[in-house]
Amino acid sequence: MTTFTKYSTLTFQLTVDLVPVSFLDALMTKADQMESESKTNGLYTFVDEHRTRRVWLDQTAADEWVQFVATEAALYDVVITDYLIGDNV
């Protein structure tokens, strides 16, 4: 069984349901790729209407995800007010 040692939480300025579908599709494609590389379990949770959370194998995987999201957010004009990486204990 894989132990996921980190999590990331993204906080969107808008509620998640108002974020462009094309942006969400890009995130899902990247998450699927990272799952195939065993960097995440492919699942995410809605913390609330503005925040989502995923678990990651390690700090490197969490950093890769956050950097990807930041880049895509700029492309799609999506405002993310906070990127948090923490220990998944």
CATH superfamily: Ribosomal protein S10
Rg over CA atoms: 12 Å
Low-pLDDT windows of residues: none
Based on the coordinates given, report the CATH architecture.
2-Layer Sandwich
Helix and strand sequence? EHEEHE
Q: At the third CATH level, what is the topology name?
A: Alpha-Beta Plaits
- Measured between the Cα atoms of the first and last residue, the distance is 16 Å
Observed structural traits:
29% strand, four-stranded antiparallel sheet, single chain, Alpha-Beta Plaits
Structural features, described:
With 89 residues, this protein is of the alpha+beta class. The chain has a single domain, classed as Alpha-Beta Plaits, CATH 3.30.70. It is built from two helices and four strands, in the order E-H-E-E-H-E. It has helices at residues 21-36, 59-76; strands at 6-12, 44-48, 51-56, 80-87. A four-stranded antiparallel β-sheet has the order 2-3-1-4, covered by helices on one side. The longest helix has 18 residues, at 59-76. The protein is globular. The two termini are 16 Å apart.
Brief write-up:
The protein has helices spanning 21-36, 59-76, and strands at residues 6-12, 44-48, 51-56, 80-87. The protein has 89 residues and is of the alpha+beta class. The mean pLDDT is 96.
Layout of strands and helices, then pairs:
Elements: E1 6-12, H1 21-36, E2 44-48, E3 51-56, H2 59-76, E4 80-87
Antiparallel strand pairs: 1-3, 1-4, 2-3
